[in-house]
Automatic annotation (TrEMBL):
InterPro entries: DNA-bd_dom_put_sf, HTH_17. It comes from the Bacteria. Residues 9-57 form the Helix-turn-helix domain. This is Putative site-specific integrase-resolvase. It comes from Dysgonomonas hofstadii.
Length: 79
């Protein structure tokens, strides 16, 4: 992933990538499982590198981890 790990992506993008709802992502934040950056009350962003680390440390299956990595790579291409 290299230099792209510092790119910030939206809550909506992370929800799509991880296949979770916004409430689950909120829980990950409040439990300290996923680092985030809050720019205003409603604007929360995530570093791609942090999302990758979260997936690596998670209990997701290796097949799902491969799909997440593929989605992240596609997302980076569209930035």
């Amino acid at each position: 992933m290299g230099n792209n790990s510092n790119f910030l992506i939206s809550t909506e993008a992370v929800c799509k990538i991880l296949h979770v709802c916004p409430r689950t992502l909120y829980n990950y934040r409040t439990e300290g499982k996923l680092e985030y950056y809050q720019f205003s009350r409603k604007k929360i962003m995530y570093r791609i590198g942090d999302v990758v680390e979260f997936v690596k440390k998670s209990s997701y299956s290796s097949i799902f981890k491969d799909k997440v990595n593929s989605l992240l790579e596609k997302y980076i291409v569209h930035l």
